[in-house]
Amino acid sequence: MKRLIATAMVVVMTMLLMAGCGKSTDSETATDSTTQAGTETGTTTESTEESLEGSLLSAEPKTFSIFLNFNNMPFDSEWEVWQEIAKRTNVSLEGVVSKTNANEEEAFNLMLSSGDLADVIGYRNASDLEKLGRDGGLIALNDLIDEHAPNIKALLESDPKFRQWATSLDGNIYYIPKNQTLLSAEFYWVRQDWLDALGLEVPTTVDELYTVLTAFRNEDPNGNGQKDEIPLFDRAGHNMPDEYLYLFDSSTEFYARNGVMEFEPLEDNFVYGVKELAKWYKEGLIDPEIFTRGAKTRDTLYSANQGGFTHDWPSTGNYNRSLAEEIPGFNNVAIAPMKDQNGNIVERTTRYPAPGWGISSQCEDPVTLIKFFDFFFSEEGSDLINWGIEGKTYVVDDAGNKTYTDEVLGNTEQTPLGYLRSLGVQYRIGMNQDPDYEYAFMTPEAQAAAELYNGHPEWYRDDVPPYLGSDLNLKYTEEDEAEYKRIMSQIRPYVDEMFQKWILGASNIEDDYATFVQELKDRNIDRAIEINQKAMDTFFKNKQ
Ligand code: CA
Question: How far is residue 37's CA from residue 16's CA, in Å, rounded to a whole number?
Fold first, then answer.
C-alpha cells in the first residue's frame, strides 16, 4: 500500500514538474514543487533530491564562462576558494579575460564588439552594465530571482540601498550588486601626539580646527626646532581638490537638500568655504602642494613626521604601527566630523554597493546560474567569498566569531586583503560584504575609527543619493546622460580652474563671483541641475 501511494505521488509529482516546466527544463524545479505540494511524502522528496546533496546546484558538473577583471585580476578558475566553490556546488566558472589583460574597459569593449558574450558578465561601471541590459546583452533577472533565488530576494526586500543599486531605470534587475554593509568610508584623522605636545584638545568645530591647524603650523609639534609642519594635507588632493569644502558643508559638485538638487558653487556655503580655505592656504595651514603632490602624499608626510590632519580611509591608522620605531609616540586618531559654521555635523563619504555580475542573453542555462548567484548570499557561500576556507584562512570559535589565521594575518609577502584576493576571496561579484571581515584585519586604531563612525548613523544623511568620490552617483537615461555630460564638460574644468585660483590666491572669489555665476548660467548649469533632480527623484522612487 505504501509503495502504491509512493508511486502515485511520483506520477503526481512528475505532472507537477511538467506543468512547472514552461519556463525551464531544469530538473531542479522539482525541489520547489515538491516542497509546496508534497510535504508529507518523504520518500518522494528523497527520490527527486537524491542527486543534489548538500550545496550541489546541479547533478552533473557544469561550467560557465565569465567575463570579469577586478583590479587587473582577471577571473582565474585555479583560485583555491573557487575550486572549493566548484566542489561544493558542481558549478565552475572559466574566465575569458586574458591573464595578462590590464585594461578592463578595453577588454569589455572588445567582447561587446566581437558579439561573443560570456555567460556571466561583471563590470565596474553600473551604467554600462545597465545599458548592456537594455540593449539585450544581459537578461532581466527579476523573474529568475523570484523563482530561484530566495536569499537574494530576501535581501532585495530588506535592504533599500541594495535594491536601489540593483534596479535599473527601466525597473529591471540586470546585475546582482556587491553589497556593502559598513556605513563609513573616510574619517577625519588628527595627530593626537601633536595635540598632546601642544596641550590642545581634539577640535569639535571647524573654528577649533582652524586654531589647532594654526598651532601645528607655528608651535613646532614635531619638536625638531623647524617650522616644517604641514598641518592639513591629502593624498587625493590632485583628483578631489574640494574635499575640505565638506568642512563647510559644500563642494564643487552637486548635492541635495530636502529633496532639492543644488549645484553647490551657486550656494552661500561655497563662498564662505572658499574664503576660509583661501585664508588657511595663505597662512600655511594647507599643504602648499595639495593640488599636485599626488597619491604618495600620506606616506611621504607621515614618514617625515610633517603631516598633521587629513580625511582618509581606515588604513590611515596603520601608520601608528609602521612608524612606531622611526617616530616614537606617533599617534594618529580618528575624530568625529566637526560642526560646520551652521552647527551641523555631517560625514559626506559613505559606502555604496558596487556593480557585481549579470547573466548574458547567450547563456543557455540561466536557472542554474541564478541559483549559483544565490549561493553567495547563503551562509555557506557568503563565508566562502568573505572569509575563504574554514580551517585554512579562518577559524570559528565556540561563540561563532570568525578570525583569520596566521596564514592571512601573518603573511609577510602580502597584506591580509592582498593574500585573500590571491585565493579569489573578496572578488568583485554579487555578494553581501560581511563587515566583520574588514574589522578582522584592521589595526586597533582603524577598528576604533570604524566603530566611532559606524556608531553614529546620524552623521550620515539618507536623503542624498550615493556620494562617491566627490560626486553624486546617479543613474540617467541615455539621452539625459549624453546631454548632462555635454553640459558638464563645459562646466567642470571651469569650476576646477576658478576654485584652484581662489585657493592659491591667484584671484579673489568676492571679486569674481558675479561673473562666475553668470558664466555657469551661460553654460547651462540650470539644465544640468534639472537632469540631476530628475535622476534623484527616480533614485528615491526605486529606493522605496
Ligand atoms: Ca617642526
Answer: 9
Residue 348, CA distances (Å) to 25, 204, 367, 464, 536 in order: 49, 17, 40, 9, 17
- Supply 305's cell numbers: 613626521
Cα–ligand 1 centroid distance for 217 (angstroms)? 8
Question: Please, where are the H alpha helices in 223-296?
Answer: 268-282
CB 405, CB 432: distance < 8 Å:
no
Question: Using 50, 70 and 90 to split pLDDT, how confident is the model at 470?
Answer: low
The kind and range of the H/E element at 534 are helix 525-543
Predicted TM-score of the model (pTM):
0.77
The pocket of ion ligand 1, defined by CB under 5 A, consists of 220, 222, 224, 226, 228
pLDDT tens digits for range 43-91: 333 334 446 888 999 999 999 999 999 988 999 999 999 999 999 999 9
3-state secondary structure 453-471: HHCCHHHCCCCCCCEECCE
User: What pLDDT was estimated at residue 24?
Assistant: 33
Left if phi > 0, otherwise alpha if psi is -120 to 50, otherwise beta: which for 244? alpha
Q: Which residue has the cell 516542497?
A: 35
DSSP classification of residue 316: G
Burial environment of residue 510 by CB neighbours within 10 A (0 to 12, 13 to 18, 19 or more): exposed
- In the chain, helix, strand, coil percent, each to 5? 50, 15, 40
Distance 306 CA to ligand 1 centre (A): 7
Q: Which residue has the higher pLDDT, 39 or 134?
A: 134
Closest CA to 424 of 38, 41, 84, 59: 84
